[in-house]
Amino acid sequence: MSSSQDSEKNMSTGAALEAGANNAQASQEAARLGRAYHRKANVRIIVDSCADFAPEVAEALGVEIVHFTYVMSGQEYADDLWQTMSAKEFYDRMRAGEVATTSAVTPGRYLEVFERAAEEGTPTVYLAFTRGLSSSVDAARQAADMVRESHPDFEIHVIDNVCPSAAAELLAIEAVRQAAGGLTAAELAAWAEEARYYVHGYFTLDSFDALARGGRIPPAAATVGGKLDIKPELSYDTNGALTLRGMCRGRKKALRAIIADFKANYLGAEGGDEKLPMAIVSADAEKDARWLADQVRREPGCEDVPVIYSSVGPVIGAHVGPGMVALLFWGKDRRESLSFTDRLARKVRGQ
Predict the structure, then answer these.
(1) In sequence order, what are the beta bridge partners of 233?
(2) 312 in Cβ contact with 281 (< 8 Å)
């Protein structure tokens, strides 16, 4: 996905991003490198908070972030990367029985963001939270059409990232680097439409309760799953929608299933980009996040791969609940694993 001549710089950037979550000095280095990349780009990149960015990474990228919102106990909050409310407080409140709700972003909100970009005039690419989980991208496309009418010379592309949570963070990091390498907005949009299928994500939940509250599974299924200590392993399909990989008896087996999928799909040196960062994201489940990282580090060629740690944001966290943990990485083309019927369906849709 990236040129070999950039591998040394790519590694130093990723290392700074990883360490940035741990100390101020590395955080400053990550920001410095991020600004250096951003100054070179002739493309404005917009992302959103559902990419579950580590705050240091968001600062380093130098991109604009559309902050989604959520409601808890009747009060609306912005998903501001845990500035207003800490991840610990949010998930403790969920554990105590409070429910967080979310809603799609309106075209008007996107119009504000895109109008500012149009006034600046820099060609723009928005890497949008996937339609597989939200209709927000439809609102973004409506707003983009309105901006094109009022600013006919302005170039804007809205791309469904089809890879939620920190998988979108990995896509955004590489998009910034590709733009810094000289891709135009149109070229970057085309790159993202292809690259998004190479980002994998596998995760497990502590319970089915949040999914049941959100209507994604029947309450009875959640009750049975809890009594039997069933832990799911999940991923997302090529449309960005959640998919069930398997059901495991116990948390440890679910975590080992994640590592098995990592081994099966990570390209490493074979793909030529072994230094591209990975991401591990959790909903107040740091112990399991570190266990995943330790297991990844034991794999050949992965000893020094940059790993970005972050917390599952409140918008996604409202639907998965405390205890979610995920491993995200660049790997094989996810479209290659499609079944015959899935391939046929994609062909019918013109995808």
Answers:
(1) 204, 246
(2) yes
